[in-house]
Amino acid sequence: YRSAVTPPLAHLIMVDNPPQHPEGDFYLLANGNISDRGHNKTGSQRLTFSGISLLNRALFIGCREGKAPLAPLLRKAMTDDRVYGHKTRCDWMDIGTPERLQQLERQLTN
User: Fold this and answer.
1) Average pLDDT across the chain, whole number
2) 69 within 8 A of 51, measured Cβ to Cβ
3) Beta-carbon neighbour count of residue 1 at 10 Å?
4) Dist CA 10 CA 51 (whole Å)
5) pLDDT digits (tens, 9 = 90+) for 49-70
6) SS3 per residue for the chain
7) Of these four, 3, 33, 71, 92, which has the most CB atoms within 10 Å of its CB?
8) Contact 100, 93 (CB under 8 A)
């Protein structure tokens, strides 16, 4: 990774934007950093976070015990350039609704 002094707090696997989420989540910059700020003029891509990641336990320092959203923690770490990632070209599908799960099941059985 970039620096032993400030190790990354997260590495995210990014994918092309699916039809139901065309605007994506974050920008993948040319240097591998992930940002939520508008960098589209620099040639970076706004992609969708697949939900697959490698997270450093330091990302959670100061968090309360229990369920909490991940996005605010990632965005905070992005301000310090401590979130990296890469775009995968593998097959990926968002199965966040019963209809999309059924679509995947039909696809797999055919």
Assistant:
1) 89
2) no
3) 10
4) 12
5) 999 999 999 999 999 999 999 9
6) CCCCCCCCCEEEEEECCCCCCCCCCEEECCCCEEECCCCHHHCCEEEEEEEEEEECHHHHCCCCCCCCCCHHHHHHHHHCCCEEEEECCCCCCCCCCHHHHHHHHHHHHC
7) 33
8) yes
Q: What pLDDT digit, counting tens, does each position of 65-80 carry?
A: 999 999 999 999 999 9
- The pLDDT of 24-36, averaged and rounded, is 92
- Answer whether 0.85 is exceeded by the pTM: no
The distance of Cα 66 from the centroid of its chain, to the nearest Å, equals 21
Residue 80 and residue 71: Cα distance in Å, rounded?
15
Q: Tell me which residue has tokens 């040639």.
A: 43
